[in-house]
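Dear support,

I submitted the protein below through the web form. The confirmation email said the job was done, but the results page showed an empty box. After a refresh the structure appeared. I'm attaching both so you can tell me whether what I see now is the final result or a partial one.
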Amino acid sequence: MMEYPRILSNRLLIADTAGLGLLLWFIGWCTSLVLFPFVSLDLLGWILFAIFTPVTIAITILWFRKRDLPLVYYLAVAVSWTLVAVVCDYLFIVKLFNVSGYYHASVMVYYAVTFLIPLLTGVRYRR
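What the results page shows now:
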């Protein structure tokens, strides 16, 4: 396994966890704001899921495929991305827009997939 200097590895960890996690969440959130007036709330989550799951998989593979990282690193990324999604959804959807009944099946599937994408990428691409 390639060793990164400690300062670089800390920056990479922050970029991989909080940075990429927030970026991916923010792109989905902005898209939901654009689609909100035109799409039924019952379908909005599934539409976003169908659009952004392949996008997230592609970005994750491109981001990590040439990096020599242990599986525990990908587990940390998976946990952090899921926490970003849960906390940001709560703050910027449930609380900000006073949404009741937000946590439908599509949201739970989204959280599970948000966890699994980086973890399974790690299983596939770790060296």
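Response: this is the final, complete result; the empty box was a page-load delay. The two ends are 7 Å apart (CA to CA).
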